[in-house]
Amino acid sequence: MNWVALLLDCGVAVIGGCLGAALSALGGFLLFGLLGVLGFLYLLVANSDIWISAVTGSALLKPSVCFVGGVVATAYARKKGLIQCGKDIGRSFLSYRRFDILAVGGCAGLAGYLVNRSADALFAGAIDTIAFTVFLVPLFIKYQWHMIKTNDCEASSHAIPSPYRFFEKFSRPRGKTLVSLVIGLCTSLLTFGLFLVPETKPYAGLLVFFISAVFLFPLFMGIPIPATHHFSGPAGAATMVWLSSHGGSLGGWGLVLMTLWGIAAAQIGLLAGDIMERLFFTEGDIHIDPPAMGIFVATAIMLGGLPLTGVYSAGAWVQIIVSLSMIVATLIFNLREKRSESTAAFT
Fold first, then answer.
1. Domain final position from 96, 123, 151
2. What digits encode the pLDDT tens for the residues 13-43?
3. Rounded to whole angstroms, how far apart are CA atoms 243 and 256?
4. Where among 95, 125, 151 does a domain terminate?
């Protein structure tokens, strides 16, 4: 182990956590996505991956560092009575001029880096270790700081009633299901296109994830755009695994199989995020990120579980039956959720 490199990474992680507290957790994630998209553009134009590798490899803006730092700093500010809602991840603390808030963010960033590094050593390739860290660290803080009661978040910076009523339909169960289907399909196809280009092949599954992160920017303006990175992230990862197991070839039913697995991964991300949101996010005064939980569960299934069964190498009809069964099951669940919400509205 290179201890000098480790110490430098730890220092960068502290700075990243402070940055997340200063910009807000949401702001740090947006910056991560924006730099990722720009890194892809630089890769395509200059045929150099120096930018994109710096974004994905550095601890500075990685969600397990920067986003986690912002989340824990927000919870700390709530614990100190400085804000009304510990889930207000759109709030920047730079103007508060409180060193302790930034310091807590830095410590959380360091903790996130160490947890992520340990998870990489144990589970690399089987789960999304970044999403696992984004879920685990705030969950630990929630119970360590006894932030298990929900407070009124109406005054939070990202909970302002929106005049853009049109977008609200996409945040409802039926709308999110439709969006996840479209994004799962588009992510698979775009990932395949990037997989064929030698320069972009190592990062092919990440582009739509970065774009999904950038598309969270309207939340700062009160536009209720639903998060989609728990659709694009698992879909891109599942497509990469399937393509790698088939050598990038789409012979016969290959295109259909690839897109079905991408759609299934996106649907699992939606389903897992919604279920775990009720378990860990709804009750509590800290942001336990539902999309991160969805990504964690979806990748554990698509990257860790299914490859052990050999289904990705099975015959075309076996893959079609399994992937379609997963898609239909999640669709049925979301339609049931829609009916229960409609019933509750009249009771």
1. 151
2. 999 999 999 999 999 999 999 999 999 999 9
3. 12
4. 151
| Three-state secondary structure of the chain | CCHHHHHHHHHHHHHHHHHHHHHCHHHHHHHHHHHHHHHHHHHHHHCCCHHHHHHHHCCCCCCCCHHHHHHHHHHHHHHCCCCCCCCCCCCCCHHHCCHHHHHHHHHHHHHHHHHHHHHHHHHECCECHHHHHHHHHHHHHHHHCCCCCCCCCCCCCCCCCCCCHHHHHHHCHHHHHHHHHHHHHHHHHHHHHHHCCCCCHHHHHHHHHHHHHHCCHHHHHCCCCCCCHHHHHHHHHHHHHHHHHCCCCCCCCHHHHHHHHHHHHHHHHHHHHHHHHHHHHCCCCCCCCHHHHHHHHHHHHHHHHHHHHCHHHCCHHHHHHHHHHHHHHHHHHHHHHHHHHHHHHCC
In this prediction the pTM is 0.91
Instruction: Note whether 142 and 170 are same-domain residues.
Output: no
For residue 23, give the nearest of 75, 79, 61, 78 by alpha carbon. Answer: 61
- Structural domain boundaries, residue 28: 1-151
Amino acid residing at 229: H
For residue range 236-262, list pLDDT tens digits in order.
999 999 999 888 777 778 899 999 999
In angstroms, the CA 209 to CA 289 distance is 16
pLDDT at 180: 92
Distance CA 202, CA 195 (A): 7
Report the 10 Å Cβ neighbour count for 165. 9
**Residue 160 belongs to a domain:** no
Token couple for 173 = 């169960």
> Which residues touch 77 (CB under 8 Å, ≥6 apart)?
83, 86, 91, 93, 96, 98, 101
Mean pLDDT, the chain, whole residue set: 88
Q: Which two tokens stand for residue 343?
A: 């019933």
